[in-house]
Give the backbone structure.
Amino acid sequence: MYTKRIQITNYGPIDHLDITLPFHDDTPKPVVLVGENGSGKSILLSHIVNGLIEAKGIAYPHTPEVESGKVYKLRSSLYIQPGAEYYFCRVDLDNSLFVGELRLRYNKQDYSDMPVGISGTSAEAMWDKLNPKDNDYYDSILDSSSRTENDIRTAFERNCVLYFPFNRSEEPAWLNEDNLKAQARYTDLKHLKGYTNRQVIASSPLNDNQNWLFEVIYDRAVFEIQTQKFTIPNDTESGRIEIPLPIFAGYAGNATNVYEAALQMARVVMRRGDVRFGIGSRSNRIVSIESPTGSLVPNIFQLSSGETSLLNLFLSILRDFDWCGVSFSSTADIRGVVVVDEIDLHLHAIHQYEVLPKLIKAFPKVQFIVTSHSPLFVLGMSKVFGEDGFSLYKMPQGQELDSEGFSEFHSAYRSFVATQKFNDDITTAIEKSKKPIVFLEGVTDLKYFQKAVELLGQEVTLGKIEIQDGGGKGNMVNIWKGFRQPLTNIIPQKVLLLFDCDANKPDQNRGNLFQRTIPFQADNPIEKGIENLFGQSILDRARRYNPTFIDITGGHTRLERGEEKEIPERWIVNESEKINLCDWICKNGTREDFEHFCIMFAILEEVLGPDC
């Protein structure tokens, strides 16, 4: 069971989105959704999950995950975008399974004509079916006459189907003594028509995974042990006889295959190739992780939150497919769809970059649809899968990107590579420099500053200081945190960390280390970044040259808790065009365009002294 297509129009922050999910030779590519908070990533996932739960409810009517006659996702006119008359959403699964909904702002009979945007789209068929006295039409798998309960159940029985919400969690062992002492037990599985032991939503699966893993280990040890007969000669009074002896020859069978797949997950997560699972004695049935030299983790509840999150997620995939009843020899045989909201939740940079992409790669026939805020995870996916091996979509437009199109990619890459030696490099740079050092947030800041020096006649100032790329706001914060008193008292020259206006860092001094923020220019159109120093005139000229430089959200009215609020027009530099806009302004800008950069030189004089 795979997701084939997602269509969303006028829903929350999403104007229009139509994504046909990517496949390569019938094998699904992982899909990563990125974007700011509130850009619609979780909204998109909710529509997919709603379809999966709807299908499961039809296949197994006695074990619904929502009440009978209800849906997983709330439908409300409040989700209709301001200025629009409707929203429309549809998710197509394979084998013609689908769910869709059309919601009008008013009842259908209140419209003299079909609202603009519906005609000629998939929403038109739903408009035609909508009762004139209603404003909502929900079209689902149930209404598709070609599908039957048995057909959908067959799809579920051959695929893992899981959703990991953003609020998934496991209480750590130190917080919950019951977890620390929790023993594995046999799972009470029911085998009834219309009933399934599987759940689509996996919020806290560690206990279930521990119990399931215990059964896998037990079945392997009891039922799948292999022996070979070895005979030894034995002389007796009546002559020589051959005595057969059974010799251990390993394990073989379905449980062994499952065990090896689970062990593969544990080894990737632990980043050790020599670990195995252990089971405590009969009075202490705790699943542990062992090494040749002893116990590494006496109880899997004692793993770190990041390791627990990873192991839980991928053991859940194995468990769900195992409970399908389909035999498999390796993780490469497992099929299905796995939806994960904030897949990088709780994970250290190493797990985001190295471990998580490897685990996803181990399931080539599973369709992963995930959201992420982590550029390191995207970088790791690019390293493991290659640029064409996965698809990256930026919300809310659903625009497909390459990994370098992710807005935080470059700065995060520098940060990741430099993590282990960052402070050492900064210390060396400070020690070598004989001049005061000014760190700016990024490459474009440096280019704009150097152009301002030229246009505003500040060459003398530039000759007396050293300007460096701070590698992004995060790295600048690391510099500030890394140099604490009394270390800052012995820095041989003054060091200034000069943040862009949106960093909102307070003015602080630590010996010769100074932190300042460029004041916000309220009259200028762009609110974030060093581009806030540019006025309307230069930005209008830049937009006429290339409209893609700047993204504009028009002023509008938003209904919030029943009250109308006026939202002003908002200008934002398109992250993919940031360097291009910088190059254009530096080539075409005038002294008047750069007049607000005088503020930066005033800060230099205040901090470094008039002789800078």
In short: Confidence is low (pLDDT under 50) at residues 485-490. The two ends are 66 Å apart (CA to CA). The first strand starts at residue 3 and ends at 11. Residues 16 and 534 are 31 Å apart (CA to CA).
